[in-house]
Amino acid sequence: MNRSDFWKIIAQSDVNGADQAEVLEKLLAQRPADAVRAFAVHWGELMNEAYRRDLWAAAYVILGGCSDDGFTDFRYWLIGRGEAVYRAARSNPDTLVGAASESFPSYEELGYAAHRAYESVTGEELHFERDPVYPELTGPTWETEDDLARLLPELWHRFAPEWHSDE
What we know:
Shape: elongated
Helix content: 55-70%
Radius of gyration: 17 Å
Distance between the termini: 52 Å
Number of helices: 10
Largest sheet: none
Number of domains: 1
Structural class: mainly alpha
């Protein structure tokens, strides 16, 4: 499976009114085990590519704070929004202002769909030959809310008033 096929499956799983994690799991469960495994590998690669300070800053602004687990769930959601949103956000996280206004930017269950589908297909848990290698956090640094306002002006303007007060 290549990345193009990966993104096609993500797009097919995003059906209005349906639980995307359930739809994705069903779509994957119709494929051979090696295809489900390849999908999970691509998923992990995209998660690693999105392990960036500026995307964590975006999650922090949108959600009003963001733990490491919260950032994982945010990246699950980001991948679920599809290739165009994902690529735009990697280039400029401020582009998430529209997508984050349309749906809650956290989706833990989506991250488990491939594992559940693999177990459905094979009767076994999905394991990889080696432990995952977690990347180093990259991208522009930020330490204060002033930094966030400068780094992500669109997101800050849209979401910070919901949780932030200058009192």
